[in-house]
Amino acid sequence: MVNLGKTFLRNVFLFLLLVFAAFPMEGIAANENAIRRDIIAFHDGSHTELPDETQLHRIVEFPLNHLGLSASYWDVADGLPDLTTARPNFVVSWFNAPIGNSKAYLDWARRAREAGTKFVVIGHTGMNTENTDAFFRLLGLRTAGYAPITHQSSILMRNPDLVGYECTPDPVLPPYPILKPQSTEIESHLTVTSTSSRLDGESALVTTGPAGGFIASGFALCRVPEINRVRWLINPFEFFTRAFALDLRPIPDTTTLSGRRIYFSHIDGDGWGNRSEVPIGTTRNPLAGRVLAERLFKTFPDLPVGLGLVGGELDRALGPVHDDALSLAREVLALPNVEVAAHGYSHPLRWAELEDYDRDAEIAEIDAIRQRNAKPPILRGLDWVGQRLQESQYDLVFFDGEVPRVFVAKPFSLGHEITEALDLASTLAPKEKRAQTFYWTGDARPFEAAIKLASANGVTNMNGGDSRFDGLFPSVAYLSPLSRQVGNQRQIYSGNANEVLFTDGWTKDFHGQLRMLDTVERTGSPRRLKPYNLYYHTFSGEKHASLRALTRLHKLAETDEFIPVWPSRYIAVANGFFQTRITEIGENDWRIENRGGLQTLRFDTDATLYIDTTVSTGVIGVRQVAGATYITLDPAVPVVRLRFADAPDGQVLLDNANWELSKVQRIDCGLRAKVTGFGAGKLAFTEAERGPWRLTAHRDEELVADIVAHSTGNGLRFALPDNLRAPLDITVQCRDGDTE
Amino acid sequence: MTARPDIFVFLASLVVIPCAFLLVPNTGDYADLRFRDGEVMQALTDSLGIQSQNSTDANAAFLLSRTQIYMGDVDGASRTLKGLVEQGADAPLLRLTLADLYASIGRQADAINLRLQVPAAELDASTRNELANWLRYEGRHDEERTYLDRLDQAGLATSVQSTRLAFLELAIGESDGAIARLNAIDDTGELHDSQARLTLLSLLIEADRQDDAQQRAKNWQSAGEDSSFLETVQHIFRAYELEYETD
Q: What is this structure's pTM?
C-alpha cells in the first residue's frame, strides 16, 4: 500500500511536471511547438541508492543541465510512471545490474518508444538475461554474444567528435557485449573488433539513432578506482545532443548576465570568532571575521559577498562568544557590498540524521563521547587553558563530528535551525537589510521539510554540489548539476567547491583554494560551463596562506570577464532555469516566459546570429563568446519574443557589461535603460554604426555623466567614471554629424 | 684552599665550553626555531638574509620555502625548491616536497614527473601505487608500463600492479612475457582478478598449454570460484573446442 501510494503521488508529480514542461502558461497555438526540457532519470533504489548518490546525478546531470534539460529522478523499484497521463520526452538510465522488474520496464519502454520517447542507456540496460535482447532491439541493436576477455580486441573505429573527450580508451579494454546495428540509421561512434575467430567480429559500443543512444559498460568514462578518479571518454555534450536530437535552440543559461560570466561570492560563517594569525594594525591576533572585513570586504568594495553567520557562534546560550563577535557582525553586515544570509543555528553536519530527531538519544550519545574521551583532571585543565588562549570557541562544542550537529546545548528543531538563524542575521543587519538566503551547513543534504521551511521564510537556499575542475580533478565529471531535487523542493547547489575541499578538510595546504584559478579557467573556456563562485568559510581569515589565496581570487574577479552579482541573484537565475518555458512559434522565432531571474539564453553555435529587433521584444543584447551566442533579455519584460534575422538591422545591442540593464527603450539611433550593479560601469555595445556615440547618465534626473566614445566597427565601449555607481538611468545615442 | 677544585673547574670547562658552543644555535637554527615558534615573518626575514649571503645553503633554502608556503607565497616557494633541486640537492624529500606543493596547486603533471625521479624504493607503497595509477589516469601508458616494470624488477610490485603490467604487455603484443607474468602471479595464489584469470586461460590454450590451463582452472574452482565464473571458464574451453574437465 505504501509503495502504491508513493507511486501514485510520484505519478501525479510527474504528470504535473510534464504537463507544465509541455504547455506554457498562455497555451500553445496549433502551429507552435513547446520545447520540452524534461528528462526522467531512472535509478534503482533497491540498491539503496538515493537519487543524489547516483552516477546520473553526480556525473550525468551537469551536462544535461548545460544542454538545457531538467532531470527528475524516478526509482524503478517503486514502479514506473503512468504513460497514460503524460509521456516523457527523454529518459536516461545508468544501472549497474538487472533491476527487479525488468520485464515491466521493458514493456514500459516499448510503449514509451512507440509514443516517441528517446532513451539514453549508459552501462547495464537493467534487463535480466531473458529480456536483454528485446531491450537492445528497442535501441536498434542486435546482441551477438559477449567478449569476457579482450586481449585480442582492438578499436576499429572511433568518432573523435564523440569518443576520446577527456581521455582515450585504455589499452586494456573492459569486457564488452557484441552488438550489431540493425539499420543504417544507427550510427556507431566506437566500434571494437576482435581477431579471435571465436568472437562474432565487430561490436558497436557507443551508438546513437532514432531511439536515442547507448554507451556500453566501461565506455562512458575512463575510470581509475585506485585513485578514485574518472574522466569522460565520451563527449557528453555532443553525445546527448545527438542522442536526443537537440536542434539549435535557445538554452536557458545560468552562467551569464549582460553577456558576462557571473561572479558571486558567499561565506559560511564558521569560525567567525576564531583568532587569526594575520595581524590587523596593532592587533596581533584579531578575529578571523575582522581580517576578512579589513582585507577583503573593505579592500574589494566593488565585489559583493554574501555572509551567512552561524547562530550558535553568536549566541552565548549555546557556547562562549567573543565580546567583539556581535559588534563585528553588525559592522560587517552594514557594509554596502555584504548581503545578509544565515548558515544555521546549531550547524547540522549530517542533515539526514536530524530528520527524525530524538533529543534523549542525542544526549546519550554526547554523554558516551564525553566518557570515552574523558581525560585526567590535569589534562582537562590544560585543555581548558589552551582553549582559552586559542579563543576558538568552535572547538569547545565540536564533538569531532560524532554528533550530527555542532552546537548541542539546545534541542534541534527546524524552526530554531532555520527561522531563528535567519531572524538573528536580520536582527544584526541594518533595518533596510534582511536575510536573503539560507546556506546549508555540513553535508549540505537537507531533507524536504528543511528546504520547505527555508522557502516559507521567503528566502532562497544554496550550498552543496562541490564543483571543481582542476589539475587534481581534471574532468567535467566533477562539475555538479544546478540543483538537488528533494521531493517537491529544490536545493540550489553552490557554483564551486569551498576551501575545505582544497585543504584536505582544512588541515593542510591552506593556500589550496588557489586551485580555483584552474577551475575558473577550465569552466570558462572552451565552453562557459559554470559561473565563478568564490565560496569559503570565515576561518579562511585565520591563515596568511588562505588569505593570500583569497586576495588573488578576488583580483581575478575584478577583471572584465565577469559581472559581479549578489549570491541571491545567482540563485534566482538558477531557479529560473527550471521554470523557464520556451515555445517555438515559427522558424528562428521563440516565445520565452516564466523565466524568473534568468536573463540569458544561449545558442550553442559560433555562427553569427542577428536579432530581428523589429519583431523581438525584451531582447537587449547578443554576444558571441566561448563558442556560443549569448542573448541578453530585459528583466522588465516578462514574456520575451526572440526572432533572428538574416542580416543586422542596425539597432544597437548590448555586447557585455558589468552592470545589468533593464527597462530598455529603443530611441532614435540608440537606447535608454536603467542600470544596476557593482563597481564602475563598463558597457560595450554591438551593431553600433561607426562614428561618435554619447552616453549620458542620470541619477534622480540629475545629469551625472556625459561621455562620448567612438564606434570603430569592432564595437562601442563606454567606461564610466570610477566614482560613479549604479543605479542610474542611461541613454546611449549616436551623434549624427558629430565630428568630434 | 687546594688546587683540586680548580682542576675540576678546568676539566669541567673543557667539556662545558665546547658543548655550549655546540648548543648555541647558528643563524639558520635561529630562523628554524622562530618558524617553529610561530614567528614566521621573522623566520622569513632571517632565511632570506641567509640566502642572500649564501645561496647554496640548502637548509636555509628549505626553511625559506616552508615560510613561503606558510605565508601563501606558493610561487616563491616553488622557485626556492626548484632552485634547490636544480642545484643538485637531490634528496628525495626535497623532490617530494616540491611535488606535493605542485599537487596542492593543481600542477599534477609536474608533481608526477618529480615523483618519477625519486627512486621507487624511497617511496612508500601507497605513493608508488598512486603514482602508477596517476600515470594510467593521465593516459601515459608507456610510462606506466615502464614504471610498473621498474617496480617489478625491484621486487616492489604488488600482484595487482604485476597483473596490470601483464595486461599492458599484452596490449603491445608481448604475450609470452604476459603469460609468464600471469603464471607467476597465479603460482603465488595472488591472481584474483577474474578477467586476468580468463585471459590467462585463453593465452595458455592458444599457446597449446591446455593441461596447464585445465590445472589452473581446477585450482580456482577448488578455491571456491563462483558458478558464473566457472560457466565462463567452460564457455572459453568450448570456444576453443575443448572440454573443461571438472573433477
A: 0.92
